[in-house]
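Bench log, entry 3. Co-assembly request; chain sequences pasted below exactly as received.
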Amino acid sequence: MGAKKRKIQSTLYNSGLAFIVLGFWSAIKGSISLFLDYGTLLKDEIHKFLLSMETEFVAEELRQLENLVYMVLVGLVIGVAVVVLLFHFFIGRAAMQEGKGKKKKIIYLIVAFLYLAFNVFIYIYGIVDSGSADLFDYSELIVDLTVYFACILIIISSIQLRRIAKQENAVGLAA
Amino acid sequence: MQEDFHYYAAYCAAYLAGFDHEESLRIGYADQFCDCCTETYLGKVKGPRAAATTQSQPELASAPGDLLSIQNMTRIWASFHFLPYDLNATLPGHHSKKYMQKYRLICKPNSDQVEETVRIAKGRSLEHFGISMHVLSDTWAHTYFAGTPSLVINNATGFYDLNTDKPLVFSHNPTIPEDPEKGNYVNSPNLMDEVSIMVLGHGRAGHLPDYSFFRYKYMPAWGNYEEIVKDNPADYYLAFRQMVTALKYFHGDIDEFVRGVYDEVSVEPHRERIMAILEKRQVNACADWKAFGEELSGQTIPDFDIFAFEKEYLDAARKEDTFLGRFCAGAIAQKSMITNRIYLSGSNLAGVSVDAEGRRFQRNSN
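Structure output for the full assembly:
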């Protein structure tokens, strides 16, 4: 039992660490596509949107407003990235602490499960909505699958550890 | 193990086994010399480099890390410091051939190899007796480590000091002096490289296996998360008793050396004294062992001097009649025997081997 428990603790710790590190990927992947691929497109869309408004702007005002809206949107994207990173950090850190033997509340597991379910739903919805899987970037998919695998390992390992702890308590009480 | 056991304790064991002061000194000297006889030293005295029984840190650091250098390392370390326990060991489940070759080099006491080590020394020189005592005693201290660089075998984590009931934290700075009172211990870093010299032998455990007072537990990489408990005082005491048994065999007092037999007659009267030395919390027990040895024999034991026999060897016309000459002959015989056994087990980790017993590279003369 001791060796099995240590093995699961090690898995939980390393999965938590991986989840934190891969959180940087999750956080920046949206931002990267925004800045590299869609940055110009976004500016064009902002320009079109402002032109479509009833208020008319002089050229200088329009330019400044475009920049302002663009900065706000970029700030929002970065904000979301930070939230995603903190999210990963919350789950990963809790997993690492539980892997080191500290008792952790079940809330982080529920959050991890919801995160996993939400992301899997988004992928499936994307396929169903578009009618094919062709729009996937497969390299991105591989990394994402790694993140989800780490999340699954966290959930399974934590549940196994809690079961073992219950058994140990039961044995302790019986003794 | 280190000088306190290899030199002074070996002297004590030899004296208790019936050897006189001078003979015991030569046995103890040869025992400790196994930790000094590098290729660099042999090159300096123009001795046979094949007789190297250890490698210095510069030699290890400059080794290119290719197959030949790994084979050279394995030949030396497995032959003299990490005698393999079971060269035909099996494990449940599937394991790669490469992994099993390394697993089979794990050192433990009371193996076929240690019996053969003692057997081939019988009737030879005092120097060869000393070499065999070094090999025998290291099987106790270096248990569960292998004499080949391997992360999957020699890596270790989760060190816990059972004496102080605290987890052990290592530093990787070799300039920090080790201090049991302050809990300062040094080990080699984990470079995540399978064949790094950092995972040769017990580097990841630092000097813990060589301190006779340590009781600790840890998880070796090969153990699948099982914890190993090491009780160095108990192991060292058994090593000492087994050394006396082997030395009595060399002395002719017993007919056969059988593993698992530990002398009681000569050692038991000194049990309390020996255990006090072994359990004393100090990184160097030379002074205590030396005092014990001098009490036993009534003679002064000189400090170990690596250059003590160098001039004799350099000036001699017949090298084989010198201390170093006889030491080299014994070392070559030991290395050949173990390398041959590793080779015959199907492993190429120690390279190809020729049995020196048949070829007789050098004649021994006592």
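Residues 113 and 155 of chain A are 7 Å apart (CA to CA). The helical segments of chain A are 2-37, 39-52, 59-99, 107-130, 138-174.
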